Amino acid sequence: MSKMPEIMENIGIYIHIPFCLSKCPYCHFYSIPYSEEKAKDLLNALMIEIAKKRNAYPSATVDTIYLGGGTPSLLSPEEVRRIINGVKENFLLSEGAEITLEANPDDLNEKKLEGYLTSGVNRLSIGIQSFIDEELSLMGRRHGGKEGEEAFFSARRAGFSNINLDLIVGFPGGGRTNLKKTLEKAIALFPEHISAYLLELNNETRKKWEKLLPSEDEVAELYLMGVEIITSAGYNHYEISNFAREGYRSGHNLKYWEDKPYLGFGPSASSYDLSSRFTNCPDLSRYLKAMSEGRDCLSEKVELSEEKRAKEALIMGLRKREGVEIESFKERYGMDLSSLPSKLSPFFEEGLLEFAKGRLRLTLRGVLLSNEVFQGILSL
Residue 50 falls within a domain, yes or no? Predict the structure, then answer.
């Protein structure tokens, strides 16, 4: 395999805020109970880590910042401003950089949202999940459908012009009627972006709700119905779970899908520098201690061979509905995708993968069985 040499240029920054007031049963991310004291300690540690990584990547320009969690909206606008300013003081932040804050509806009010906007946040991702009160209650959400709607209106009044709504497909006992109501409500609000994720549960919760959960076939039906409803409203289905109005694709998430570099800060946050992946320890106490001592707190570091990186880049690229451009992929990674039919013939024969307009992509049926296709690529 021969490939183009690459350097770290435009990078994304992910900052993990691990605090929650309660734990949702579908959440797989590291989170702990919130306290003002822990939040203060985290911010101090983040400033240390940001400065430390600046020294490792002195020429990098940051064009996306994403505050995820956990629940970043538990932080005050002043705390969010401190984080963004910490990035600005240590990295070159490009003009017009996309700066996203994840938020729960019950944490938001117009004054707080105005504060986030003036702190530098220009994209809001609201965890609506559903507009059906019964579904939200079952999933342990602290807001109802009306509160979700009001959070969106408050964000608009505050001045946010780039809003994503996070939704979940496949609620226990939900069915087509509830999903249709949620999607129609979301579309009526006319956000710039909609994310519709399939529900994922840990084994314990899945067993608890076994009789309420839709079957795999029913989930597939719900997903296809959701795609039809959202795209019919004029949204571009650009990634398996993501839909955007023209000009509003998630710049930060595209880093992951297009194999671009990013740096993660905070406990459990992951980084990728084009040759290796490394992940911070998912433990706030250990993280704080390590930062105070001026050392890393890694739980994992994986050096990527050219072949492994190419496979991972192909898998992430296939998440995009347009797929992967064959010629540019060969130039970048030295892998000729046109030879794949002989190696992955069942997926082509079953209509899960296809070539179209110089690209390799998943068919819509392939999207439903994407995990099988991705496993096949990893086993090459």
Answer: yes
